[in-house]
Predict the 3D structure of the following.
Amino acid sequence: MWKMGKILLCVFSLCFILQSSLVNAAQKSPDWVGKLPVAEQSNQILVVAGVDKTTAWVSLHNRGAGGEWQQIMTTPGVIGHNGLGKTREGDGKTPVGNFHVDKAFGLADDPGCAIPYVKADEFTYWSGDKRPRFYNRMVDIRKVPDLDKKASEHIIDYPNRYQHCLNISYFSLNYKNDEHVIGFGLFIQCFPAAKPFTEGGVAIPKDKMVFLLQHIDPKCIIVIDSMDKLGASF
């Protein structure tokens, strides 16, 4: 199954390789970007448009001084192995909706991110510990020695995907009372080493991830949905 997924991802990437090669060249955004409901709420939009079950087209758009939208990055990406529509922890789906970024981190050095960036090391975990004060938080194991490690991710164990990450605000926007199992560790991250999908986050090539960190606005709105529902085309 992974082999077939890799083949599909390669085909998907090749179909857009010319457009992706222009990743750093600003161009007029497609008309549908300016028609998104969030277009009046922010000067920057990151769109994750689901193409099929596990692939997406990811694009970054800035509003110009005259109000026009400029597309400054486009790239193929992958999403959760069960597609879009996350509702609970472990469902393998990527959340749909409008989000922000509430943390930037990675095993690699800060490439120049406007959002405060934390360099992870061997002591860094992303917590899945169900205790409210720890769930979906970056934790230094030296400060929380009783952390439920089995339920958490040891960042250094995933050197490819976690070179650079942006945490999607899914949990903080959806948390209610004691619902500690709606999902944790939903990142925009680098491609995983082998799997042509994620466990629920959004993955893009490392060089595109670096570009994103260097250009993301702290007030950027992330829009995630299928191409059809977004009215998107590239």
Residues 4-8, 11-23 have pLDDT under 50 and may be disordered. The chain has one domain: 2-230.
